[in-house]
Hints:
Blueprint: H1 26-36, H2 48-81, E1 89-93, H3 100-107, H4 120-127, E2 133-141, E3 145-152, E4 155-160, E5 164-168, E6 173-176, E7 187-189, H5 193-198, H6 200-218, E8 228-234, E9 238-243, E10 249-253, H7 257-271, E11 278-282, E12 290-293, H8 295-301
Parallel strand pairs: 1-3, 4-7, 7-8, 10-11
Antiparallel strand pairs: 2-3, 4-5, 5-6, 8-9, 9-10, 11-12
Amino acid sequence: MRDYKSVTPPKVKPNKVRRVRKPRDLQRLVKARGKANKARPERQPRDWKVLLQKTLRCAVALVSTALIVGGGVIAAHMLVASDYFRIEAVRVENAARVTVEEVVGLSDIQIGSSIFDLNLDMIGRRIEENPWIATARIDRVFPREVVIRLEERQPRAIVNLGYLYYVDADGEVFKMLSAGDRLDFPVITGIEREDLLDKPEHTRERLRQALALIDELAQRRRFNLESISELSLNREEGISLYTYLDAVPVQLGEGDFAQKLDRLEQIYKELEPRLPALRYIDLKVPDRVIVKVDNRQQKARG
């Protein structure tokens, strides 16, 4: 008799599951085929007549533009070369220390030449060679006039460099004095010619300091420009003034000129009669006026 308990049941292989195809989306397929089956637009034949007309219009426009530009250039050359722009007058403005004839001669502008032939920058540089002229601006006034506008230098002091020279407000030494030049300006000493050549900007700065002191003195009532005869510049001691009476040195040093002159003016009324007996007045010490008496003068008087 067979023992069924001991018999192992045979393994059964599971059936493979087949994939079921989904039905196609017929509506989408129909639309796609419908688009594909649309009739392609037919090519239209080119209208060569219209194309030729457009090309001719462009060519005519280009030729017309070229003729207009070329005609304008030719007309401009003819106008420039004509007598219509021949210079008839040269006008000079703001000439006080130089004459009109001098300026016109320096400009070398020829009456009758074309107004377009002028090199304005070069003409201005030639005119500025005159020491009195700081700047010269040249303008064309069409059709036949040229205007020269000057800015002249104004002397503020005289500097002694072995010869006397004028100094302008910017500390520029610009002209040696000649016969007929005015001498009623403050005189600055202590500057050497080598200083101007070796250290021009430093020397100009020293002169500007002296001019600032001159401006301060011009505003004073008791001790002012009429009270002095000279300003001396010294590298170590700074600026000193010399009184008009008896040439007594007034030592100011550097800077704070207004405060120092304030202290001097407070006692200058009493000092002025005693100037012949003084050796110097020192204002360099803050809040002090140091007066040095010349003992030699006192002994001579005694």
